[in-house]
Amino acid sequence: MTSDPFAHWQVPPVGLTGSPLDRADTVRRDPATAIALRSRPDARWLVMDDLKPVLRGDAILWAYRSDVPHDAVSVFLGLDGEAPRFAAAAPSAELVSDFGGRVVDARAAAAVLPPGQAAIIAHARALLDWHARHGFCARCGGKTEMKKAGYARVCLACATEHFPRVDPVVIMLAVKGDHALVGRQPGFPKRFYSALAGFVEPGESLEEAVARELFEEAGIRVSNVRYLASQPWPFPSSLMVAAFAEAEGYEITLDTDELEEARWVTKDDVRAALEGTGEWLAPPPLAIAHTLLKAWMG
Question: Which of 125, 217, 263, 268 could tie 234 with a disulfide, CB 3.0–4.6 Å?
């Protein structure tokens, strides 16, 4: 009986997770309550200017209702204790000039914010981006309007309900013996390598997607696919599902449309890469590929 190479995992922290907000589904299903919460004195808004959050220092700048244009697209994020929290797609000029705010790319902001605040940024960006791209019905082409405090849209012509989409992506390390497989796409920065990844296709399980992607991109056959963790990745709407898989062999056959290079690396190689002292660069802590590599190292 062979031993399980994944029996002693510990899952390191995953970026963009751990929001402190209660998403309060009962509020979302009650339009009157959702409207009333907007008028509470402790209600605050995260302003997203072109999907970029407004920060003050190294924290979210929570704006008052009076600081947000009345016609801005605004969604309910949840409750911080009893205090309502919203996000709005709105200009940031006044917050910058009057309150010392600064507009920061969402990914860059998430990399420096405390984990819970980074998760709030991811939540807000995903919802507001979905609303910006789904003003018309995919069934009949009619206009849609926001419902459920931002968690649905309804077609005004055919009454079809639409919900925020999430696109599952598998991201995985093939492991054999004391080695794991990493690769680099042609567009990656120089020396940068990561875990292989790909979208889950219709009619496919997560395990099947892991096996298919590893074979298509690197010619590696695998078995014993094991889930590690997941991560929302709102650029624009992915859910990253991290896994390990046992490789049957070491021989690599590249799909050069997808990968520029792939290589087998040791735990010492990964440790040096994560510390910034190796011959290749690892993904930053925000990315779940970083989590995968740290979990494999143990």
Answer: 125
- Cβ-contact 194, 242 below 8 angstroms: no
**pLDDT class of 1 with cuts at 50, 70, 90:** very low
- Distance between CA 209 and CA 45 in Å, rounded? 39
Alpha helices in 72-226 (DSSP H): 93-99, 106-112, 115-133, 206-218
Structural domain total, the chain? 3
With tokens 């490789």, the residue in question is 247
What CATH number does the domain containing 265 carry?
A: 3.90.79.10
Give the integer Cα–Cα distance in Å for 260 and 26.
Answer: 49
pLDDT mean over 124-146: 98
Residue 58 sits in the same domain as residue 123: yes
At residue 6, the pLDDT reads 72
Q: Is the pLDDT of residue 52 over 80?
A: yes
